[in-house]
């Protein structure tokens, strides 16, 4: 075989060699077709259909959003950045200013602190969305005012633009950052008020009713529009924090005496079957949810000193002299006692009384309360008065009317009057106390107890209902 033929067979992939005199082929350079223009999103965040619907609902429900000129897409953005656990920006938005506003918000630590309170919370996210929308609307108005003055200057004929464009971009960025800071600050303030209000009325995290956003929103709207209710809820938060401390300091005896199983959220008392579910990935989140909502199965213990805990009855004097701060703090203390009673699975009766001028009664069971009736009881005030502004004559009758369960009863009376108690009323009341095993603790604000010492197991005279005071601390350690 010819050696040249053998080489050709071995080099099968060799390219043919162009003869030296052959002209180069003319190559047609075809450019790739231009990319289609990018489709811009109407929202600056990745928002699903539910988020878009929520945005439409918010605009329909909120006059503040409509006044700010917020459309459904902007409302969906502002709601989603508060509600979604991990909000994500899109590449491009039809409103670049909104895109910039939200991008800067996602980069601020203050937003992330607020986000822990608003994520997956419909009511809190809606409140935050309103503040975001209002500040963004204000930012757009500032942009419109600055626009006529923001043109770059030129130098003579054919001159180039000065550094005005760079300065204008920096000013816009700083303006957006200021708007973000103010929006987050205002949202944080109102979300904190929402938390305090909900907790004061028994709708805090893990409490019955905490998963009802419409009820929480309705209650918060009512509190926000009622100055006295707002004051009471603010004070109740201080009393409740003291109550938490006092209750933690109480010594529980007889933990080795297991008598049954009950729903709860105490990790130290969880049944082994509940603990086992925490290591199963499919059951872990559901178990944590039930622990937070105090619905997990826990061991029920029996105390060494068996005490049949009955109801707590709180009597608030609503005579004219109690109007104002005294009445507000007395009702805040009543809310803190109701919080304690719920933790102890006890029943609560609230009594507002003013001599022979009238009375208002409300029962709060260990489960979910009627938030509307509770707001009514807190906001109303009788304003009458007599020589006996605590219901010593009527309390036995009230006890039957409100259906108080049997058991050792704690009666807490708050008044500012020096009572004169007739002998027959005193004897009848003490007899009733003995029959129902009631313990009466009286707080007298700014006056001497008078005859109340003859019907009370404990009497504390205080100048004001101070949450840090020893007398209030004694009450909150029940």
Outline the secondary-structure elements.
Layout: H1 3-10, H2 49-61, H3 63-67, H4 72-83, H5 96-106, H6 109-118, H7 122-146, H8 164-200, H9 213-224, H10 227-249, E1 258-264, H11 272-277, H12 281-292, E2 296-301, E3 309-317, H13 325-343, E4 348-353, E5 359-364, H14 371-379, H15 395-401, E6 408-415, H16 423-436, E7 438-445, E8 458-462, H17 470-475
General description of the model:
The protein has 478 residues and is of the alpha/beta class. The chain folds into 3 domains: 49-146 and 167-200, no CATH class; 258-301, no CATH class; 309-475, von Willebrand factor, type A domain (Rossmann fold, 3-Layer(aba) Sandwich). The chain is built from 17 helices and 8 strands. α16 (423-436) links the parallel β6 (408-415) and β7. The protein is elongated and about 85 Å long.
In short:
This protein has 478 residues and is of the alpha/beta class.
Rg to the nearest angstrom? 35 Å
In DSSP terms, counting alpha (H) and pi (I) runs of 4 or more, how many helices?
17
Q: CATH superfamily of the largest domain, please?
A: von Willebrand factor, type A domain
Structural class: alpha/beta
| Mass-distribution shape | elongated
- Helix and strand sequence: HHHHHHHHHHEHHEEHEEHHEHEEH
Arithmetic mean of pLDDT:
83
Largest sheet: 6 strands, mixed
Q: Total domains, how many?
A: 3
- Beta-strand content estimate: 5-15%
Low-confidence stretches: 12-18, 24-37, 152-162
Helix amount, in percent? Answer: 40-55%
CATH class of the largest domain: Alpha Beta
Give a count of the beta strands, DSSP E runs of length 2 or more.
Answer: 8
The rounded distance between the terminal residues' Cα atoms is 113 Å
Strand order of the largest sheet: 5-4-3-6-7-8
Question: What is the level-2 CATH architecture name of the largest domain?
Answer: 3-Layer(aba) Sandwich
Question: What's the CATH topology name of the largest domain?
Answer: Rossmann fold
